[in-house]
Amino acid sequence: MKRHLLTIGGGLAGIALTVALLVTGASVIQGQQSADVPDFAMETPDLADVPDLSGDGMNAAEGGTDEIMPVNPASGIPDPQAVRDIAPEKFALPQDVTAQPLERIEPRTPLSQPVARPEPVPSVLRHPIALSAGLIQFGDRLLQLDGIEPEKADRICGETGKTWPCGVVAKTAFRNFLRARALLCTVPKNGWQGTLTATCSINDTDPAAWLAENGWANAPAGSPLAGKVASARQSRLGFFGDDPRDLSTAPPLPDDMQLPGDADPSIDMTDQDL
Known about the structure:
Blueprint: H1 2-36, H2 95-98, E1 120-125, E2 129-132, E3 135-138, E4 141-145, H3 166-178, E5 183-188, E6 195-198, E7 200-201, H4 207-213, H5 226-234
Parallel strand pairs: 4-6
Antiparallel strand pairs: 1-5, 2-3, 3-4, 5-7
């Protein structure tokens, strides 16, 4: 019994000693910090030293207004008109720059010489193939006649229910006009690639003018062929008229030619077993 009491008493004494040591250490640390920090005295400013911001003494010469007037840097006199522009594109520039009028200067000389275009020369182009009214193929090169608008071979004309393939008819008419004849065209000296717009002639006849006169072309604004196109439109020719093909009469079939499904009238089919 005594042994247990001694054990408990020893534990309590150890706890009390630890607490005493902690309290003593905290007191010593606080005393050192207080000794290192000097004492500062808070000074209160005198009201007599504070400037008067009410506007009576500061702007008395300007009539007691709170507005600060800008000063002209040249004369040193307040200038009410000298207000600096605070636009974003001008704010970073000094006032003496933004106040001056703009002056146009001559453009600088180019760093390199412009590439000269090849000089066009008259050339004979053979074996033309009409792809549409005004568009001609020469091998792997294409030429669009100048003065008229490009047309498509699949163009459809007419009203609903009475349409006709005017693009194909125009291409056929243009092919009959060319008849594989050579054209004299103004093209670049060293040839061209892709599609070229140029003027041509066939035996002193302008193919673009022929298309415009017969209504197989439209003229852009300012074209010299606009008058011919207007006349063709008024006369209802080409694209501006009806289908010029005569489809009412078809060539008769030969007597010995029968269509699939037609029966021979000389054969009696009533007695045959089907």
